[in-house]
Design brief:
- The structure is a single chain.
- The chain is built from 18 helices and 17 strands.
- A hairpin with a 2-residue loop joins strand 16 and strand 17.
- The radius of gyration is 26 Å and the shape is globular.
- It starts with a helix and ends with a helix.
């Protein structure tokens, strides 16, 4: 091991000692196990082969995580890639908050203790018209807090067609069980009527729950109770109506072809008592769970619950969210929030970018293959807008080594590039490329095709 370690150190002297040591240890342990399974007839690898494997592993270990990647998939809110990238201004606000002290829980006017999150909650109320607002660490936490604070030890009514599972095995029934809430399923998988809710409400019912089907859609012979009629029923029975919207925005984008249900203020207008959605999806901010309430008293019930402290956000999240909400208030969000800018990009502008990128790749010295601009199809992703695609444009790459090997080579680049394979070719969708990404992409592509 000492000799192999010295060899790895010679090849990869710039890598930290801990990464080299762990790589050598793990590669030798794996090889011993392989030789034991294979028996005496197996030929051990050469020292140079072991060193090559150890160096590759040491490089992977030494990389920062999460590592910056170039997103050329056309999926704006790619969950595996961290969903919405922060705006430059939001990132600067995070850096400023991280470098020093701040008035996180201090009222500078009085010198007394203040409320964490008060500023962003006030801006949320201004933007949405809500009576109260609350911010927690993600949307799952928002739903968990709402269920726990309003229905623990009691029952909640939800349509069977809305008992969804999203990424990471997040299931609505499991969250309800964790909150100590008894689930009352109503309707069938494809059809739920208002009368089903009416029949299910009893003395033990604490709330009605409506859940957005984040990552799939029902079509055909289907029916569901609309939000206004559910709200009317909830008011008549004296129950709160909670909507897990999943992904919401504070801009009314209906005129641009977006479905009406993603506009969070509109859900309050249509009768929801409490609306929960993510800060890092269509809003384009940091990971957070945003809760809007029609009445301040309802938000206060959640704020006073002991679980609220366990689910609260830190100063870095608040700094990024505050900057993002300010951009909305000042009318700068469409230009400065990357996710919004990408989602609202016109096909004509994307075509121009794709044609320019294809020409640049094609005339790059050493490029082996064919690059051509072609129409593509982009998606919001992140469990948002499951039926809503976007006209987009991408660069189709046809190379001798094949699409799979080319994609693997791009993933191994520094920074890694993530693309899409379609009809046997690699497609680089320009919708999700950020400023400066083209340089990294072209360099990675040239290296991979060599």
């Amino acid at each position: 091991m000492d000799h192999l370690g010295r060899e790895v150190g010679r090849i990869a002297a710039s890598l930290p000692l801990w990464a080299r040591s762990e790589a050598v240890r793990s590669v030798l342990a794996e090889e011993r196990e392989c030789l034991q399974r294979a028996g005496e007839s197996a030929a051990p690898p050469s020292e140079s082969e072991l060193a090559e494997r150890a160096v590759a592993r040491a490089r992977r270990l030494a990389r920062p995580r999460p590592e910056r990647v170039v997103n050329a998939t056309g999926i704006v809110l790619h969950t595996n890639l961290g969903r919405a990238p922060l705006a430059d201004g939001a990132a600067r606000a995070v850096a400023l908050a991280a470098r020093g002290y701040g008035d996180l829980e201090l009222d500078l006017a009085t010198g007394r203790r203040g409320e964490r999150g008060e500023a962003v909650e006030e801006k949320l109320r201004w933007l949405s018209g809500a009576g109260g607002a609350l911010v927690v660490n993600n949307n799952a936490a928002a739903v968990l807090l709402a269920l726990t604070a309003l229905a623990q030890g009691r029952a909640a009514v939800v349509s069977r067609g809305e008992l969804v599972e999203i990424g990471g095995s997040f299931r609505v029934p499991d969250i309800m069980a964790s909150a100590g809430v008894r689930l009352i399923e109503v309707g069938t998988t494809n059809r739920t009527h208002l009368r089903d809710y009416e029949a299910a409400i009893g003395p033990d019912t604490a709330l009605l729950l409506k859940v957005h089907r984040s990552n799939f859609a029902l079509s055909g012979f289907v029916a569901e109770a609309g939000l206004p009629e559910l709200a009317s029923l909830a008011r008549a029975r004296g129950l709160p109506l909670v909507e897990d919207l999943g992904s919401g925005t504070l801009l009314d984008l209906r005129a641009r072809g977006f479905p009406e249900e993603v506009w969070a203020p509109g859900r309050l207008e249509r009768g929801a008592g409490l609306v929960c959605f993510s800060g890092d999806k269509l809003l384009g901010g940091p990971q957070a769970g945003i809760i809007l309430a029609r009445d301040a008293a309802l938000a206060d019930r959640l704020r006073r619950h002991p679980m609220a402290r366990a689910l609260r956000v830190d100063k870095l999240t608040l700094a990024a969210l505050d900057w993002t909400l300010t951009a909305y208030l000042e009318g700068r969000a469409e230009q400065e929030v990357p996710a919004l800018r990408q989602l609202l990009a016109s096909p004509a502008s994307l075509r121009g970018r794709a044609e320019a990128l294809a020409e640049r790749i094609g005339r790059s010295e050493g490029f082996r293959g064919k690059a051509s601009a072609e129409p593509s199809r982009g998606f919001a992703g992140g469990g948002s807008l499951p039926e809503h695609g976007f006209e987009s444009w991408g660069v189709r790459i046809e190379a001798p080594l094949g699409a799979d090997r080319l994609a693997a080579g791009l993933r191994a680049a520094d920074p890694p590039v993530l693309a899409r394979i379609h009809d046997g070719a690699l497609v680089l969708d320009v919708r999700t490329l950020l400023e400066g990404d083209e340089d990294s992409l072209v360099s990675a592509l040239l290296a991979a095709t060599r």
